[in-house]
Amino acid sequence: MALMSQNPPNLRPDLAPAPKFDTARRDGQPTIGMVSLGCPKALVDSERILTRLRAEGYAISADYAGADAVIVNTCGFLDSAKAESLEAIGEALQENGKVLVTGCLGADPEYITGVHPKVLAVTGPHQYEQVLDAVHKAVPPAPDPFIDLLPATGVSLTPRHYSYLKISEGCNHACKFCIIPDMRGKLASRPVHGVLREAEKLVDAGVRELLVISQDTSAYGLDRRYDTHPWKGGEVRSHITDLARELGRLGTPEDLWVRLHYVYPYPHVRELIPLMADTSNALLPYLDIPFQHGHPDVLKRMARPAASAKVLDEIAAWRKDCPEIVLRSTFIVGYPGETEAEFQYLLDWMDEAQLERVGCFQYENVDGARSNALPDHVPAEVKQERWDRFMEKAQAISEAKLQAKVGRVMDVIVDEIDEEGATCRTKADAPEIDGNLFIDEGFEGLEVGQIVSVEVDEAGEYDLWGKLV
């Protein structure tokens, strides 16, 4: 077996894949660079900004030297993410000099200009028009109407075979550790027919996997009172059930995968499970649900919209109706006031929930979050010790789940191919955050984006190996 890199167990849940750029340009064409930090939702914002800039005649540069100016799309979710954003801004200023800042951290412009007073402009999250105005001022456009034609699919920062599909902005929850509603506002859902049209265009352009994202996917359409729109000769609601059903009809599992992220376990989520159990449509039996903790008292201190006991009942019901369902989640350990008994409860909860894919991070204070003022903050060394124990538990569950797949035949999507083999994913694996399946023999005829059948012949803690059938 060839030696290949394995998926690490502690990938940050707030990070998106590294951007990939089309850097073709003509002589004299103004060029913009983009540094995209943060989560997949921020990546979608970057794509929209670059799509607009491409439409106006700008080229995209993958390096500082080739750019007339650089946009840094920042993250402000955690203090460590803020520091990373400030570092990226400083690097862009040093390497290029003309820097525009946008994104979540841009909601507090004085925070940025206090550290980097030489930035040309600061705009907040999803302020596309203000970003474009700032770019026009820094680097005037010079479009050529005979050359600069907008690609039908826009500008994509992900590989061509998968794409994020953002269905809403903002969030109506008031979780004490989170400031996303302050940065991105209340829930603002896109009309369902607009989302479906975008999805159709992506599929027509060759996208094989749609990754549905928002701050709260299961609340989609609530702010629109689940209004209806004409679609395919009928009516469809701006509701996650209707949207998932229609997305699933855009293809079959042999040519398209649709994956749901950031789903809160509301009661109506159970309406999605029969769609996932139906093997004739493209909706994958996969739910990404940010549980954050298992103990009801911790969840209450977090002001989370869920009760842990009912969640375990829901999980059992989902698995009864769809045995193939895969659940991924993220958790916080060391939340203020978390006792050893509450943490042990979480470990026991994990034993019962048996989640297939799990990420975890240690609690951090975030400027502006209400959790900062809670009493009994957990010492750093205790947080680290609990994180280690939690990940040991999650790893053991993952290893047992993957070992049970040895000998099974399953479909995988091909992400990368090099001289050592093909890096693929099963339906249980989202890109960048979950595991991989490696093929190291007979892969020469494969193509990136292809969906093929593989027999699993080896399992690790987070990854699988297999051979084509």
TrEMBL record:
Keyword Oxidoreductase attached: no
Annotated binding of [4Fe-4S] cluster 2, by residue: 171, 175, 178
EC annotation from Swiss-Prot or TrEMBL: 2.8.4.4
Catalytic activity: L-aspartate(89)-[ribosomal protein uS12]-hydrogen + (sulfur carrier)-SH + AH2 + 2 S-adenosyl-L-methionine = 3-methylsulfanyl-L-aspartate(89)-[ribosomal protein uS12]-hydrogen + (sulfur carrier)-H + 5'-deoxyadenosine + L-methionine + A + S-adenosyl-L-homocysteine + 2 H(+)
Span of domain Radical SAM core: 157-400
Positions of the MTTase N-terminal domain: 30-140
Superkingdom field: Bacteria
Keyword Methyltransferase found: no
Root EC class: transferase
Cofactor note: Binds 2 [4Fe-4S] clusters. One cluster is coordinated with 3 cysteines and an exchangeable S-adenosyl-L-methionine.
Ranges of residues in domain TRAM: 403-469
One annotated GO biological process: tRNA modification
Cofactor(s) annotated in UniProt: [4Fe-4S] cluster
Principal location: cytoplasm
Pfam families recorded: Radical_SAM, TRAM_2, UPF0004
Localization in the cell: Cytoplasm
Swiss-Prot/TrEMBL keywords: 4Fe-4S, Cytoplasm, Iron, Iron-sulfur, Metal-binding, Ribonucleoprotein, Ribosomal protein, S-adenosyl-L-methionine, Transferase
Residues annotated for [4Fe-4S] cluster 1 binding in this entry: 39, 75, 104
Entry GO terms, CC: cytosol; ribosome
InterPro entries in alphabetical order: Elp3/MiaA/NifB-like_rSAM, Methylthiotransferase, Methylthiotransferase_N, Methylthiotransferase_N_sf, NA-bd_OB-fold, Ribosomal_uS12_MeSTrfase_RimO, rSAM, rSAM_horseshoe
Region span, Disordered: 1-29
Molecular function per GO: 4 iron, 4 sulfur cluster binding; aspartic acid methylthiotransferase activity; metal ion binding; protein methylthiotransferase activity
Similarity remark: Belongs to the methylthiotransferase family. RimO subfamily.
Protein purpose: Catalyzes the methylthiolation of an aspartic acid residue of ribosomal protein uS12.
Name this polypeptide is given: Ribosomal protein uS12 methylthiotransferase RimO
Originating species: Aquimixticola soesokkakensis
